[in-house]
Amino acid sequence: MIPPSNVPLESIERIWKDIFDHYGYTEKIVRLKDFYPDEKSLIVSFRHISDYSNEFAELLINNPLPTLKVGENLISSMIEKSRDSDSRRVNLRLVDLPDRDVKVGIRDIRSDRIGKIVSISGIIRKRTDVTPRLQNAVFQCSVCAELTIFPQQRGRLEEPPVCSNPECGADRQKAKFKLIDDESEFVDVQKLEIQENPETLEGGAQPQRITVVMEDDITGSLEPGDRVIIDGVLLTDQKRIGAVLLTEFSIYVYCINFRREEKEVESLDITPEDIEEIKRLASRQNIVEDLARSIAPTIYGMDIIKQTLVLQMFGGVRKIMEDGTTIRGDIHILLVGDPGTAKSQLLRYMSEITPRGIFAMGKGSSSAGLTAAAVRDDFGEGRWTLEAGVLVLANDGLAAIDELDKMEKFDTASLHEAMEQQSITISKAGIYATLSTRCSILAAANPDFGRLDPSKSIVEQLKNFPLPLLSRFDIIFRVADVPSSESDTRLADHILKAHRVGEELRKRELTGFEGERLPYEEEFVPVIPKELLKKYVAYAKKSIFPGLSEEAMEIIRSDYVRTRNAISSPGVPITARQLESIIRLAEASARARLSDIVTAEDAIRAKDIVKYYLSESATEEGVLDADIVMTGMSGKQRTIASRVKEIIEEMGGDRGIDFETLKNTVALRGVTNEQLLSSIKTLKSNGFIYSPRDGVYKVIKFDR
Asked: Which residue has the higher pLDDT, 536 or 657?
């Protein structure tokens, strides 16, 4: 590679040597000698380079590859002095690059950056396997059998123009050059696809992507879903149609170094002034209620739902026990309701105000699109690549999935591991990988026949929804559209005011005339602005890790025990899963207040939310029964179904029992016709009975 223009090679080499000597890098190079080839890179701070010479620092930013190559050759020569073996590749990797000079958004990259150092941030969407690339090819001349070393660039294999033997000197027309694989040098290479961070997008903008090429010792370090900052050089590849070269070029980033973005704060740029404002807000007496009023103020009502969504944003504390067991802190919520109740609008709003929030439609998503997949496409040049789905991209954030009921059963089944174990395991085409999905899931679904039936449980109205998946949601809310003169008047008034405010805002935008403000305009302004709310959540999740107080533990414990033993029925009113949900919600409540301690107030708020959810979704004849959500049947239904099965088995014999006889028999034991039909349906769907002919039932007997 040629040195930078107008700068002598000797001058660049001397500057590198001075920097190595002056800032203590010579000792690190000596260490590199001892550990090579296990360690192949020298990390150099850009601050030292700019302190030594601003002109050289500018040269390095504007013409990096040739300048770095001179430094790498110098390090190689210093290593080779103490080694008899061939020292192959040494990398010079930069850290502490100045953001003001090199930082650029993926969508803002333009041609004036080509050949210069850029720093981009985003999520890894795809990655290929690590493969070898020819770096220094060894060719054998067909005339004299002399070996010639010829360096290779990315792309097509290039043969040497002439034989290196001076006595031969044959060119390509006189001789054929055979590649000798065993003698050639290879370097590991891997391609990544980086996508913009969702929190940096405005409105419904499509995230932009760019390819990143990594080589040598930094390959294999990153997985889909990782958030990274890539420091590299913007390079080009010429496009072609067949053998015809085009004037258009595609761009990619050749990676010099990378950094992982572990926290939301890094991408949201929270200032000390923001932290002061966040702490001032947290000191409010009713901060949780204020946060709830900041969620979609144009959507009327839903006070308890909005409070619960606030707690979901903050989440509980993720625990890692000494034996390696993990207990999730993320809260999963499902909204099931009538059309026109603003479920979709609420989901989209939550994805916009939550750090690392992503919105997806269940109807248009496959299991691969939601979780992860091994795919074969042009990016991997015909090889299998690993591609992250929505839940992986939302890691440490929130995934809002609308129309979850429209997904196929095969696709929803893939969510089981992602929701409870919070990971996705891919095993396909020789690729075995485990990706993190540590995110909260907010989903919405419609009942089977469009509208909720108040006489039926949620499970009965979501026949296509797998029960194990339903039981993994901490909270399930019914969002019903019930006619009521009083509530309808308030709703209509709210919607009319919202439209009137929208009309006024649009008029101001187009005319620039600031007229008199409407008296109710403040009702539709969030108590806490969107950007500040997002920073509030990010700061709390990074800095606050609340622990249960003895008082909170006693409230939760006594309420759990009292609820389980207060009702004498075949079902279980509350289970350990709901107990864990209460703990997560209580921790989230404390985190929302920026408190390190879960108080009695937090515990009461959490248990009230869970009680409200159970009373709405897991109640039969006014009695709590968590089995309705956990198993799809209440304890009473299970008892009746078991009784019906016993009667069919006793009276049916080899010929079976007809429906009329069965109905009359069970009626004597207090089973209604509706309960009988429900039990028959349940027993048939679960494979306990069958109909040998119309209106006749027999028990399926299994050979042992």
From this structure: 536
